[in-house]
Each structure stands twice: as structure tokens, then as C-alpha cells.
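Problem 12. The chain below contains 210 residues. Write out its predicted structure in C-alpha cell notation.
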Amino acid sequence: MNKKRSFWSIAQKHLMTATGYMIPFVVAGGVIFAISVMLNGKAAQPTTGWLGQLNMIGAAGLTLFIPALGGYIAFSMADRPGLAPGFITAYLATEIKAGFIGGIIGGILAGLVVLGLKKIKIAPQYKTLGSIFLYPLGGTLIAGGIMVFLIGDPIASFMTWLTTFLNGMSGVAKVPLGGILGSMIGFDMGGQLIKLLPLLHKHKLILCHI
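Solution.
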């Protein structure tokens, strides 16, 4: 039982560390994105003029939040050598349409791979080279390859189903989702669990964009 609690405690630490770094991307990108749509005067993304350019700025933040999430999960797990593999693997997840779940899995995968690579003994004079070259390169090739060739498509299929399910919710069907979000707020106001709400909120409202 203690081992189980220890595992979840470690997993929570890495996820919450990454979420803390990721939230500014969601806040900055989401607010700018929303302002551009609001000023557009209709429920559609502006594509021309200065509003289109403003929308582009917001979209950049929203596009980068999943790579940032994956990157900082790997960073929390494996320190600086995990940062690039985590960012790149999570970015690949977005390209495959695996969404934020793919980004989380990609970040964890990259962190685990780099941790494994760091256990391989190398000569003391090559330790610096390992941190800036060998570990990032190996971690990116292995974790990125697993994402692209093995797990990316199944995750993308699941995200497609989830998108269809959420977008199909209307009327009274939205009550359970509202209940879940409200319960999270009431249960953990100001705590770590509440930091996960931006993921759910963004996924429901602008999933079509990413």
C-alpha cells in the first residue's frame, strides 16, 4: 500500500510540476484567442486583417501548450536532458492528433527513456556531452519513434472518439460534465487537482482547433 501511495505521489509531482509551467501558455494563448473571436462579431475564428493576426498569436500559445506539458513532465522526471525529448515527443503527439493525453504519455515516455539512458555508465570526461547531446538525441529518437510508429495512432483514435462524444453533448447531457468540473473545484479549491481543469476546459471548447 505504501509503495502504491509512493508511486502516485511521484506521478502527481511530475504532472503538477509540468502543469504549473504549462498554464501560462493556456492563459496567454486562450485569452488572446478568445478576444480575437469576440471582436470578430461572430462565432468563428477571424482569418483576415488585424483580428486574424491577433488570432494567430493566441493560436500559437494554444498550439504550444501540449509540447510544453510533455516537455516539462520529462524535465521533472529526468532534469534538463529530458526537456527536448519531452517537447519533441509531445509535439509529435499533436501532429498525430493524439491530443493532450498523447502529450502526457509522450512526456512520461521521454522522461522514462532518458532516465534509462542516464543509467548507462559513460566515461567522466563525456558526462557533459551526455547531457547536451547523447541523452537528448537518444531520448528523442527512442521516445519519438515509439510515439510515431507504435502508440500514436491508437491514442489518436481514442481522442477522435472522445472529441465526437464531447461535441455531441447537448442540453441535459452536459449536466454530468458540469457536475464533474464543479466537484473538482469544490473538492480541491486552490489545490493541485484544480490545475487539471484547463486541460478539460480547453479540450471541450477548442479541441477542433488543435
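Discussion. Confidence is low (pLDDT under 50) at residues 204-210. Students who got a different answer should revisit the alignment rule from Section 12.3.
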